[in-house]
Amino acid sequence: MSATTKPVNQKAWFLILPVIICVAFSAILPLMTVVNYSVQDIISPERRVFVGTEWFAQVMRDEELHSALLRQIAFSLSVLLVEIPLGICLALAMPAQGWKSSAVLVTVALSLLIPWNVVGTIWQIYGRADIGLMGRMLQEVGIDYSYTGNATQAWLTVLLMDVWHWTPLVALLAFAGLRSIPDAYYQAARIDGASKFAVFRYIQLPKMRGVLMIAVLLRFMDSFMIYTEPFVLTGGGPGNATTFLSQYLTTKAVGQFDLGPAAAFSLIYFFIILLLCFVLYNWMQRVGTQQPEVGH
């Protein structure tokens, strides 16, 4: 070590020590417990039998799990197909600066402040045909609407509820991406006589790629783990129309108290989310690298 080299201060590690401890108690230790349960048959608190991969094989053969997985994938893809374009459109329509911009930002973000169980309750009342605004209006125009009796309408209501609740998050992220674009790009576009669509296609969309990637990953992971809103709104029904993977897991673990299969399924659930996020992230990275350069 030369005489001019400054010693490294290791005290900074103490600043992140509370975070490491919290992560250990909230993630690592529960994960170790789940792994332990997934390979054991818990007959009683004092008696446990090692079963290896038996629970994993049993879960993989479960037809209800396959149906719930298909419903979950369809729901998450629908969320992305609706919320991402709609959020971008909202961000483009929002004022760029001034008091109007601040007022619109606060108004748009209001739905994000509502707790998940309250969101389900709001839409439970909103969709009622006797007192709910949406349910009553649909009945008045001749649509026999019932989110508790029609499977398709229940699924669409859950989707509409999620769009109402979380599209503002996409809009706020897209708005932040738009505000980070230097004015020089817009000035060059005006000099070249570029249309609004060309500005969006070659300037705004490529520059928003980073924040849109974050929005897609956040909304995909959150929608893939949705539980509270559909549970409050429909209870997973009618039938199993809105029973997604998280509710299926809760029924296994709490309702039926099958801790072994539930633990095995939770690990499979975890790896499915990791795998799909990995595939989605790499696909978006590949699409982003294929974007044409600005000015072409």
If you had to describe this structure to a student in words, what would you say it looks like?
- Helix content is 70%, strand content 3%.
- It is built from 13 helices and 2 strands, in the order αββαααααααααααα.
- A two-stranded antiparallel ribbon has the order 1-2.
- β1 (40-44) and β2 form a beta hairpin.
- α10 (209-224) packs antiparallel against α13 (259-289).
The count of strands amounts to: 2
Largest sheet: 2 strands, antiparallel
- What is the general shape? globular
- Strand percentage lies at under 5%
What does the radius of gyration come to? Answer: 24 Å
Average predicted local confidence, pLDDT: 84
Secondary structure layout plus pairing:
Elements lengths: L12 H26 L1 E5 L2 E4 L3 H7 L2 H31 L5 H10 L7 H11 L6 H8 L10 H29 L3 H10 L3 H12 L1 H16 L3 H6 L11 H11 L3 H31 L7
Antiparallel strand pairs: 1-2
